[in-house]
Design goal:
It contains seven helices and seven strands, in the order αββαβαβαβαβαβα. The chain is of the alpha/beta class. The protein has a seven-stranded mixed sheet with strand order 1-7-6-2-5-3-4, with helices on both faces. Strand 3, helix 3 and strand 4 form a beta-alpha-beta unit. It holds the Pfam family Acyltransferase. This is Phospholipid/glycerol acyltransferase domain-containing protein.
Amino acid sequence: MKLPSLSYDLLKAIGVPLFKLYFRLESINAKNIPAKGGVIIVANHSSFIDALFIAATVPRKIGFMMLQSFYKKPVLNWFCRDITCIPVPDNESGHQALRRAIEYLKEGNTLSIFPEGGRSDDGKLKEAKTGTAFIALKTGIPVIPAGIIGNFKAYSKHHLVPRPYKITVRYGKPMVFEKKNKITRNELNSTTQLIMEKIKGLM
């Protein structure tokens, strides 16, 4: 599976300084992200460019799960085609995407997921989908919760252009769930709730 390359390197070399200048971007406790092995990074999602805020503050190369509709956006289309993005169908079953995500993580990579499955309309957490919990329970791979602060004010779906609000990405401690071969609906729901509570506490 393709690893991040040109776009990612450009983001780190050019985008990070620009983000720090325009958004006064800072990260807190990125040291909580393990240096090796598969890692799932989960965060709230209120902005068109949340993936860029995550990529700019994670000290490892990272892939993303992203709705297929985002590939229609010129900037993200370019970004996704040059790095590892796992497309998730907007209105269909995402079983294939889940399998690809599990494979990618088992290869020792870092994967960012927005559990809400889409941007918030008001900056508050939406009800999350259970895909992240399924991946975490199926693999036993650590989950790092993150709260992106200021993203809704900076560039929500209601804004035509980004505004220079301060962005802070706060990373929590790893959450490790017992690996399971068979997963019940209750386990999916309770794990999803735990993950979202951690994200909310970091916002």
